[in-house]
Amino acid sequence: MENNNRRNFLKKSSSAAAGLMAIPMFQNNDLGHYKTEKVVATKQANYENPRLRFSVIGMNHGHIYSQVEAVKKGGGQLVSYFAKEANLIADFAKRYPEAKLVKDEKEILEDKTIQLVLSSAIASERAPLGIRVMKSGKDFMSDKPGITTLEQLAEVRSVQKATGRIYSIMYSERFENRATVKAGELVKSGAIGNVIQTIGLGPHRMNTKTRPEWFFDRDLFGGIITDIGSHQFDQYLYFTGSKQADIIASQIGNVHHPEFPKFEDFGDVMLRGDGGMGYIRVDWFTPDGLKTWGDGRLTILGTEGFIEIRKNIDIGGREGGSHLFLTDNKETKYFDCTAQNLPYGSLLVDDILNRTETAMTQEHCFFATELALKAQKNAQRIKLSK
After folding, report:
1. For residue 284, which of 145, 241, 265, 359 is within the disulfide window of CB 3.0 to 4.6 Å?
2. Record: fold of 174-343+375-381
3. How far is CA 311 from its chain centroid?
């Protein structure tokens, strides 16, 4: 009797296992459909005459070039620039011969015809510069991180409120990535229902031989969560719509680069807000076998589907970056986003001229930074035994 029961149990178990093995084939063949859609570019304004004049002060990170291009596409005219480093000046002058090199930043701040100043100075110097810019009656656009301490943030908020100027931080992983811009349109249209969670991954390649000294000093670059993680906090707030959020846990560490004792090569954060949850991981461990600086990813989970963005590369084989995949209750769709418009520069110029907040609200800009700074400050330090 016992042997018969055992044989029946094994027979039923084998049948159940065979059924489970068949489920993925059934789902792939009968339930899901796969489509590809090419995003069609919308007509963008072509400005025959400049809409505003702008300048650059500080260009210690190469992001300054995408900052300049964004404003130029929005109708801005680059008229002058200042930097302390001769090699950076030479590269910038070659790229923008139409602009004038001035002898010091004072010449730019005192020029009443200049409405906007851009900067990718050493990270810890950006907020003090932005304060000087706003006090001079001009708007300011900083590379990320735009602020590196909570003390700086408090002062920037105070001056911004007092002057009424715009302090914008170019969170380029959203503003300069076509798939992320498209994802914003899809989420807004309700394509995946209500957003529940975002997962933002920001891996980077070290390139130690090409990095300046300040890049390895936490006091100057702000820490890994402040620096790289600011992108992910911006996207978390944008896609979940959270107006309030708390850091549940954060951790940072230098787990593989002891030659740079003030550097951090890994960090992650878990957070919860009134609009959804979030997880963030940032690191400096992109291997040399990848043909771009990092396999940046963003997953947006909704009640009716999910979106995955492969920002810089699709290791599955598609060329280029800005890849977007959307899966809902009907199908899985791949979006070719190469023609997606990038509106940040034009919207920022609009905001400067009209005193509006269409590119990004000031509250959002500062809150994303605040969350990054708090996560950085309160992070537990990782110590691995291997």
Report:
1. 265
2. Dihydrodipicolinate Reductase; domain 2 (3.30.360)
3. 10
